[in-house]
Specification:
This protein has 178 residues and is mainly α. 51% of the residues lie in helices and 3% in strands. It has 2 domains: 51 residues, no CATH class; 104 residues, no CATH class. The protein has a two-stranded antiparallel sheet with strand order 1-2. Helix 3 packs antiparallel against helix 4. It is globular and about 60 Å long. It starts with 18 loop residues before the first strand and ends in an 11-residue tail after the last helix.
Length: 178
């Protein structure tokens, strides 16, 4: 089983995916969970941890012969689950631009121009979700949780509608920046 738990911390070690953590530390950090979640956490044996970092969007994603796409060009936090989707969209748009323009420099420039507005919006929305999902003030967090429960039960369409701009997006329609 793969379990993802997130806890903010002030200090961090070098980048990487293979940093071992003592399972007792994780169990202590998440001891306030109950029910099935607590049971799963209590059974943890191996823990690898890695950091989540917010990087500013680069203005340039390419040079004369090389272009970056996906997380290499515009890393995003996982709080909208759009990282892979952005890479797939990038691939489609880049292929379209290369097909449209025989000059790679022009294709790369057009690709970046068309993709930047959407990518920026996704990165900012994901960052906003990170803040909302990890409110440090207990009262604010509780108000958010109760509101979310209420909306999910009585107005679920409002929660989904908020992200229609992500899920209704059609990369094949030539309006790449919506």
């Amino acid at each position: 089983m793969n379990l993802v738990l997130i806890k903010e911390q002030d200090e961090w070690q070098p980048d990487g995916w293979k940093h071992l953590e003592d399972p007792r530390v994780v169990k202590e950090n998440f001891k306030d969970f109950s029910g099935g979640t607590a049971e799963v956490i209590s059974s943890i044996e191996n823990v690898y941890k890695w950091g989540l970092f917010r990087y500013p969007l680069k203005q340039s994603w390419y040079n004369d012969r090389v272009i970056l796409i996906g997380d290499a060009a515009h890393p995003t936090l996982p709080f909208l689950a759009q990282g892979a989707a952005m890479a797939i969209e990038d691939s489609f748009v880049l292929a379209s631009k290369i097909f449209e323009f025989s000059n790679s420099s022009v294709a790369f420039k057009e690709f970046r121009r068309d993709r930047f507005p959407r990518v920026r919006r996704v990165v900012l929305a994901s960052t906003k979700n990170a803040h909302i999902f990890h409110l440090s003030n207990i009262i604010s967090r509780r108000v958010f949780q109760v509101s979310l429960r209420f909306l999910s039960k009585f107005f679920p369409h409002l929660l989904v509608k908020r992200f229609n701009w992500i899920y209704d997006y059609n990369v094949t329609n030539k309006n790449y920046s919506s």
